[in-house]
Automatic annotation (TrEMBL):
Keyword Iron included in the entry's annotation: yes
Pfam family, one: 2OG-FeII_Oxy
UniProt-listed PANTHER family: OXOGLUTARATE/IRON-DEPENDENT DIOXYGENASE (PTHR47991)
An example Gene Ontology molecular-function term: L-ascorbic acid binding
Keyword Oxidoreductase: yes
UniProt-recorded name of the protein: Fe2OG dioxygenase domain-containing protein
Entry similarity comment: Belongs to the iron/ascorbate-dependent oxidoreductase family.
Domain Fe2OG dioxygenase: 291-390
SUPFAM superfamilies attached to this UniProt entry: Clavaminate synthase-like
Length: 429
């Protein structure tokens, strides 16, 4: 449960980062510093319409990310949003627990950390002692040709990969090897680990049995979060009862979400026109009046060794768009042309991320931006992200207007529910 209570851990003021938060060497901020002198696009929405269409379309094609100014949300509403969120995170730990989420059982709303279901949770394991990387290779040969060494091109200490179903529907191998479990100076894999297999499969370990090999203690991020649907569904009762000096968390979030909806409608029109289509096309594909908004408040407490940790792992958002506002501590980075680019703060600007659904609808013309968040030694970083998504039953695939003999569909069409399930379960789309 430690993973869900990073905030409590940070309160103890540890001077060393606990092992489960230490990223593999190739992921650590100290080894992946942001490129100098590159800045993300900033677009004022008060410019003439055709200028905004052009700038937004270019930013979505080249970056999948941009800042907007002159969006019409009052600074005082943004301020109130921040204050109620902050007040929630300042509650005593015990009181926050009353609002806990439970992602494993599908209850995503509330306080916690992990949004993705941890596949490993439903696995049982045999404890083994790693002897060497060679043993690992030997195991993979023993336990089946179906096992794909997805990380074969990486040095073993850097190994971290996922599970994928094989063509015959079975699960392939996952390696998740945390460097903290190994001999520091050795390129060999040493230490105790857990050889994991699905309970059913464990019984029939044999030549073709798929296996999971993972070191005990999955990697964690240095963050806590609060998540809730904010429009149009009613909020969960438990969540809506939380009140602060500045109003209720759900009330202010709802007020802010209405503003975000207005901006979303504007952006979707600009994005549609940028694709050479009628302004209403994207919104209509995303469910029109059924469009859903969800609020995630991210909280990254001060971290004893920020150079070794991440607040959010590199990912793209599964939403159509995400509109985010940070507090005054920087930390967001976006991936552009093979480099991380730090996003500088700009007062009252909103950060717009293109999410996976817009990339799919535009058949790859607009990019879903890869991004991550760093943490800070002294300061608490917070961000308020609104995910804008279609209803679960909406079928999302490349727009027929954009597909022809020269431009074949690059993505399969599926319901948003199916997309979510695959993304949460870390399965290929
Ligand atoms: O905190 C940030 O700036 C990024 C958060 C994020 O990417 C997310 O919640 O999906
Ligand atoms: Fe994100």
């Amino acid at each position: 449960m430690i993973a869900e209570r990073v905030q409590a851990l940070a309160l103890g003021g540890p001077n060393k980062l606990p092992a489960q938060f230490i990223r593999p060497v190739h992921e650590r901020p100290e080894n992946t510093v942001a490129v100098d002198g590159v800045t993300v696009p900033v677009i004022s929405l008060s410019q003439p319409h055709d200028v905004v269409v052009k700038e937004v379309a270019e930013a979505c094609q080249e970056w999948g990310f941009f800042l907007i100014t002159d969006h019409g949300i009052s600074p005082s509403l943004i301020q109130r949003l921040k204050e109620v969120g902050q007040e929630f995170f300042e509650l005593p730990q015990g009181e926050k627990e009353a609002y806990s989420n439970d992602a494993a059982s599908g209850k995503f709303e509330g306080y916690g950390t992990k949004m993705t279901k941890n596949l490993e949770e439903s696995w049982s394991g045999l404890t083994i002692t790693f002897i060497s990387w060679l043993l690992l290779l030997r195991l993979t040969t023993m336990y089946g040709p179906k096992i794909h060494l997805l990380t074969a091109d990486l040095p073993p200490l850097f190994c971290t990969c996922r599970s994928y179903p094989s063509a015959d529907g079975r699960q392939q191998l996952v390696f998740r090897v945390s460097p903290s479990c190994m001999d520091k100076d050795s390129s060999e894999l040493r230490g105790r680990g857990t050889l994991m297999a699905n309970t059913g499969w464990l019984k029939r370990l044999g030549n073709s049995a798929p296996l999971i090999l993972l070191v005990k203690g999955d990697l964690e991020t240095w963050s806590s979060a609060f998540f809730m649907a904010s429009f149009p569904e009613p909020l969960l009762d438990g969540l809506s009862c939380f009140r602060t000096r500045r109003g209720s968390l759900s009330g202010v979030t709802e007020e802010y979400s209405k503003e975000i909806l207005r901006i979303t409608e504007n952006l979707l029109q600009l994005l549609s026109e940028g694709l050479g289509l009628e302004g209403k096309v994207l919104k209509s594909c995303l469910g029109d009046e059924e469009l859903k908004l969800e609020m995630k408040i991210n909280m990254y407490p001060p971290c004893p060794q920020p150079e070794l940790a991440l607040g959010v792992e590199p990912h793209t958002d599964m939403s159509a768009l995400t509109i985010l506002v940070p507090n005054d501590v920087p930390g967001l980075q976006v991936w552009k042309d093979g480099n991380w680019v730090a996003v500088n703060l700009l007062e009252n600007a909103l950060f717009v991320h293109v999410g996976d659904q817009i990339e799919v609808l535009s058949n790859g013309k607009y990019k879903s931006v890869l991004h991550r968040s760093l943490v800070n030694k002294e300061c608490t970083r917070m961000s308020w992200a609104v995910f804008i998504a279609p209803p679960h039953e909406a079928n999302i695939g490349p727009l027929s207007e954009l597909v022809n003999d020269q431009n074949q569909a690059k993505y399969s069409t599926k319901t948003y529910a199916e997309y979510r399930h695959r993304k949460f379960s870390k399965l290929p789309q």
